[in-house]
């Protein structure tokens, strides 16, 4: 299922089209905040969830809150 979903999203970065009909970066941020907090609370390495949370926050700050999480490619590809 994940493979099919990612394959369907493959053209999105080239097209700069990230529809949020099935989930938005704001929705993902909510989940990532929970995962990062729980990781810290449970003593599990929290670096990756915190990084993904920070990237989502940047995406939202740059106007991608209503787009799906793939919109973070707009941030990542500038580096």
Automatic annotation (TrEMBL):
Pfam families: RedAm-like_C. Residues 2-78 form the NADPH-dependent reductive aminase-like C-terminal domain. Residues 1-23 are annotated as: Disordered. InterPro entries: 6PGD_dom2, RedAm-like_C. This is NADPH-dependent reductive aminase-like C-terminal domain-containing protein. It comes from Nonomuraea dietziae.
């Amino acid at each position: 299922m994940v493979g099919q979903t990612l394959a369907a999203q493959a053209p999105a970065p080239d097209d700069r089209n990230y529809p949020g009909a099935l989930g938005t970066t704001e929705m993902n941020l909510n989940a990532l905040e929970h995962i990062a907090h729980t990781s810290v609370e449970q003593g599990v390495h929290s670096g990756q969830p915190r990084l993904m949370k920070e990237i989502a926050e940047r995406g939202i700050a740059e106007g991608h809150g209503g787009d799906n999480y793939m919109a973070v490619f707009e941030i990542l590809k500038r580096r």
